[in-house]
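retry 2 of 3: previous attempt timed out while embedding zinc ion. Reduced batch size to 1 and resubmitted. Inputs unchanged:
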Amino acid sequence: MHHSPKSDGIEKYALLLSGIIIALIVGTAIFASRQTAVSVAEAETTTVPTVALGDPTETIAVTADFVEIAEATPETILTVTESSVSTPVITRVTPTNTATATNTPTATYTLTPSNTPTETPTSTNTPTSTATHTATATYTPTPTPTVGPTQDAAAGSRFFELPILMYHRVEPWPEDAGELREGLTVQPDMFRLQLEYLRDNGYEDISLYEMQYALTQGREIPEKSVIFTFDDGYRDNYEYAFPIMQEFGFTGTLFLVTEFMDEGREEYLTWDMALEMHEAGWDLEPHTKTHASLTEHNHDYVIYEVLGSMETIKHYVGYQPRFFVYPYGAYDDDVVQIIRDIGFWGALTTKRSLTQSIHYPLERGRIRVSGRDTMQDFKNRLAPLPTPTPEGDGVDE
Ligand SMILES: [Zn+2]
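retry 2 succeeded.
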């Protein structure tokens, strides 16, 4: 505190002022948010000039002003009043977004294709180096798929009503056969009746290859052509279907599950049986190695199943098979692309269709023949218009 030696009176007032100032400081502290403009007002007896105690917004100024007040006259009785309360200054702080949102992902998502099938093939002849397809992250479909022999100018406009008949087993029904087995099994007597009907109604059998050349290059085929296909390569095809077909001079196409034959399963043809039928004019074509549902397996495994069975048959017949049947009729875009890349000219489904063309050659429809069909059912199946289908459809063993 400043001490003035001038007189005791001054010292007394100075003491008083210092008390006031202390009170002001305390007040300022109490009203922290209220910065007080302090002024020296009227004395009780003497009018003195109002002395501003500094900038009301700056508390520190009070100290400086105190010196001047302390040097005021002894008569001055100062009363300090709170003359005003300054309006609190509200500083509007405009928020600044320093974090700038961007839509550009910083992380790069990279698809890492795995060339290793997650399923381990059970065959001892695992073709680890024969798969020519490499899984890639970018799938580029072929815009205009063209398969098979060179197409002439009229190829796109050829549409044949040409039934491709789909059989599985031909044998007497086992005693315990349920509906499923009966549907898959055409009994020999009924099979013979069906062939008689076809012959008597002018049908002539052709092969899938003959159909392909007729569609693509206009080669002649009988007006009423029919194609016989037998899925899975059951041994009864050799024991029953083969001799009955020979009675009529018909041949067909066997779609073989090659690994079942390699394993010598009794239910399936031996290679000797299949080759004997091939010598008699039948075509041998692949139906995968183990009858796997191709839509339920990864890319590399599908190649293994399809290419493996194709190569096996190629080994036996000496040329590359060009037709394929999807097990269970199951396929998707990836499967079809693999079939195309391997070089097949046609792939057959279980969908019903009488019409054949070069369009969608890898999704050809067929005419299922159920073992539960009556002769009238069989005739209805050959009719151009869709008819109510008897029981047994939708099943492909
Ligand atoms: Zn099958």
